[in-house]
């Protein structure tokens, strides 16, 4: 792969994680709107945005062909349906967490997500975990247990975000559907339920007329706020190494954590800091292990090239 392509991949990935990191700022602007309403609008306007971009860029035929191929297989159709439910659950938990002053907890969810991913792969795909990766998971689990004791309840938002996105990623890994078709299908499947909620349920409380003018524009913009980072992520993942992608992904939860502590002024005690430090130690160990594996995998190919 050329340096230009790799450079574009790094830029796309960095932009994706920056957008995800600062996304709480967007949802905070909609603090007066219930999380269920935001989710419904997010789904509908994401589909509208995807269809508009696909039509404008001339990709409609190719994407439509891929959508038809996806539903021609019962197994693939069930998998993408499950993925659409999981990503909707993930979106709802994140919006709810942000607008209920749990941005720090949300950041924890995305910190532990890589460890959840490899654990799910080990359990369900029978991929082997190295000793370092097992130790990393143990450290992260210890950090979560410490937070559970500190909070007095299980940090369900963090675990819900990590598990929903972990299972979503697992399904996407084993399902041969491209990024454009995938996001279009996922929002298309959930849009009827979102519209049903907005038209029947919310219509009784005033529908769109119950929102402020700025809220209406922000709800419509939720489609672009959702789709753009996902598409940038897909573009980056195709062009750069898995290890580099793994390193860059910690940018988003770090930004969320800083926003939660310094901008939103959520409580962050010494006990929480110690718990996060333990989780970070696990992430450092995990990243080191993955980077070593990537280096070892590259060596044979270098020798062959010689």
TrEMBL record:
Residues 8-148 form the EamA domain. The keyword Membrane applies. It comes from the Bacteria. GO terms for cellular component: plasma membrane. The keyword Protein biosynthesis does not apply. SUPFAM superfamilies: Multidrug resistance efflux transporter EmrE (SSF103481). This is Chloramphenicol-sensitive protein RarD. It comes from Salibacterium qingdaonense.
